[in-house]
Specification:
The protein is of the alpha+beta class and about 350 residues long. The protein is built from 13 helices and 11 strands. β9 and β10 form a beta hairpin. α1 packs across α5. The longest helix has 17 residues. The N and C termini lie far apart (about 40 Å). It catalyses: Endohydrolysis of (1->4)-beta-D-glucosidic linkages in cellulose, lichenin and cereal beta-D-glucans. Keywords: Carbohydrate metabolism, Cellulose degradation, Glycosidase, Hydrolase, Polysaccharide degradation, Signal.
Length: about 350
């Protein structure tokens, strides 16, 4: 496994916002914040509870939980979350995870499709933890998932490398407006690590084409990407979904920054378009009107990170105070704080 570790070290070094192996053991999320997050969202079984979504668990949440445990230098918590993930979600025969686990129904898994962003988060966290903590079993599991992602969800269409949101249901063969993508599924910081785990030139193309596509997704008066985008012709909001810049899309600027993609024009357009009086909001793309204004510090930190990257603006005190509320914004807040603390401490 030495080759995998060498590849991962090299790939991690390529990631501007990632934690270099030499210093990763120094927690980028402080113990109090991680303890508060665990108390609110981590079940003793190891599942991360999405308390804003019927208390379900999903592959995205498990991947986020593992990444945050790694950033908190908490191997025992990482293993706890990974145990639930591998025993309850890795049920498919292709190496990918089922996307949803519902405590309110039996069997707990009723939809065996995967969610590509969740799989990538899990593989990424495993790779980082395996490299840092000398756990070859984590690296092997990460490599299997990366290979499955490459085989099942990375696809070329019309000269572009795309990340399909799931292995089923999103291609041109699956729907008349396919392929359909979700631009918030591109986790730019993780893609070079996927390339180390499952070597292919397709990963670099995927990252480059993701940014290029994002620049063309300027829908409605606010020139924002939709949550779900049809690429059967020029990009347009996909059929059967609300034409909106919604909750998933809010993380796109954070993913760009954490991935070292600090294109000021792109970040500024996204921040301006997604904000109402400086506060993030979900947006009706047809009218440009805000649907829900999101004042939670976990949502607002996305704009705070962009302001730091673009203008060197310090984070407001409210962003630095972590008091977990709902799973999703609380997760975004810790990811934002970890990034600023590592890469832009001048903004603290």
């Amino acid at each position: 496994m030495r080759l995998w570790r060498a590849l991962l070290v090299a790939a991690t070094a390529m990631l501007a916002p990632a934690i270099p192996p030499a210093v990763a053991q120094q927690a980028m999320i402080n113990a109090d914040a991680w303890s508060a997050y665990k108390s609110k969202f981590l079940d003793p079984s190891g599942r991360i509870i999405d308390n804003g979504n019927g208390n379900i668990s999903h592959s995205e949440g498990q991947g986020y939980g593992m990444l945050l445990a790694y950033l908190s230098a908490s191997p025992a918590d990482f293993e706890q979350i990974w145990y639930f993930t591998r025993t309850e979600l890795l049920l498919r025969d292709d190496g990918l995870a089922v996307w949803k686990w519902d405590p309110n129904v039996k069997p707990h898994v009723t939809d065996t499709n995967n969610a590509t962003d969740g799989d990538m988060l899990i593989a990424y966290a495993l790779a980082l933890a395996g490299t840092q903590w000398n756990r070859n079993d984590y690296i092997l599991a990460a490599s299997r998932m990366a290979e499955a992602l490459l085989a099942k969800t990375v696809a070329r269409s019309a000269g572009q490398m795309l990340l399909l949101p799931g292995s089923e249901g999103f291609t041109a063969a699956d729907r008349k407006d396919g392929p359909v993508v979700n631009p918030s599924y591109w986790i730019y910081e993780a893609i070079p690590v996927m390339a180390a785990l499952a070597p292919s030139d397709a990963w670099k193309e995927l990252s480059d084409d993701g940014v290029a596509l994002l620049k063309t997704m300027q829908f409605g008066p606010r020139k924002l990407p939709a949550e779900w985008v049809s690429l059967s012709g020029p990009p347009r909001p996909a059929e059967g979904f609300d034409a909106e810049f919604a909750y998933n899309a809010l993380r796109i600027p954070l993913y760009l920054a954490r991935g070292g993609i600090t294109d000021k024009a792109l970040l500024t357009r996204l921040r301006k378009g997604m904000s109402q009086d400086g506060i993030p909001a979900t947006i009706d793309l047809t009218t440009g009107r805000p649907k829900t204004v999101l004042s939670d510090p976990g949502y607002r930190i996305v704009n705070d990170v962009v302001a730091c990257v673009v203008d060197g603006t310090k984070l407001p005190s409210s962003a630095l105070q972590f008091a977990p509320t709902l799973y999703y914004p609380s997760t975004l807040q810790l990811l934002g704080l970890a990034y600023i603390g590592e890469k832009h401490p001048e903004c603290l």
